[in-house]
Amino acid sequence: MKTIITTLITFVFLVGTISAEEKKWAVESELIQPFLPTIQIGKLQVTRTIWGDWNKEHGELKLGAFLRPRVKHDVVDIIDEYAASIGYRHYFNENWNIEANYYLGYVWADNNKWNRRNLGPYALLGDTPEIRAYAYQQVEKDYEGRVQFAEALIGYRFLLNEEKTIYMIPQFGVLHGLHGSGIIGPRDGKEETFIVGNLLIGLRF
Q1: What is the distance of C-alpha 39 from the center of its chain?
Q2: Which pTM was predicted?
Q3: Fewest 10 Å CB contacts: which of 164, 172, 177, 181?
């Protein structure tokens, strides 16, 4: 995953000096999350300007992929997670923007660790090594299921070259695990909301 992201970044800077004619398409990738322990999420996405002037207020349709292969995780030992995304980004001017995204995919995970910290009714029986070992055996298991998220973000686009073909967007917002999503199964099926930050690198073409 790190090699893919590094190659994409190199490609972006090599072709970033193409002509400054009006362009509707862009390709983007996230720079930080692939390298963070327990997260290591790769994102690749394509955007298409669907209305307005790119230098003024306008809207973009987003299609993307969420890739998380064989990652050491806080809830399970190893997680494999893949999803497709669709979204809309609204620019108020050339820089400030907000966006909403929906992710749908599938997850496989090895060895649920979360419930080992929450022994439930077994904790009422005592805290002896024997009881804890029995409880550990009851909750240690693999799981798989659907992953489903909704995301809302605010960002600012920095243009990195004179042709305005290379840009970077820091983003902040929330990611919410929707009801019925397999990813939140290890956390007792509770819906969860996460504070998220992205640093996108993009290339217009």
Answers
A1: 9
A2: 0.75
A3: 172
